[in-house]
Amino acid sequence: MNTIKKFRTLLVNLSVLLALALSLVSTAPAAAAAGPLSADEIAGLQFMREEEKLARDVYLTLSQKWGLPIFNNIANSEATHMAAVKTLLDRYGIADPVAGKAVGVFADPTLQVLYNQLIAQGSQSLSAALKVGGAIEEIDIRDLKEYSASTTQVDIKTVYNNLLNGSYNHLRSFINTLKTQTGEVYQPQYLDLVTDQGVISSSLGWRGRSGGGWR
Question: For 49, which of 6, 85, 189, 191 could close a Cys bridge (C-beta 3.0–4.6 Å)?
């Protein structure tokens, strides 16, 4: 009986501690915004929110078309990127341009045109689809570098830099998959061959440039 009593007491104590822990989590204040944002910083966050949606939507569509796991896997990662930017939008009280938008629908007309072009290109062949994936990640890298350099907010810089690392990883994956699936050497489409090759190549130990491409 004493053993049962002790066990019941332990359960009660654990329940109390768990309830206390949950209450602390639920009442913990969100990270405070560091300060008012400039118009450019606001526009940058809204644009990157949609650009990450573009990446996710293209990969979801190409996954249905070609059935290659890389597209669905990276689409899931892009959804995480979208959520990271959404956290910043909420923190600073910025309207979400993605709210209520279906797959393939964008508020920014430039991104809408780009989405349509990328889907058309990626539907032509598996090789073209993988190159579209590479193009998207190159565009992401270019834009994230620009927006990170133009903000002084530490929290925004941190998110942008995390997304940048993710985009480099995605680009490496597309370069590698293009090689293994088709035998083709990836040709850079938006990034500078000299500036970015070191970062791209270092992760997978590639030997660098061959015929102007990355391998």
Answer: 85
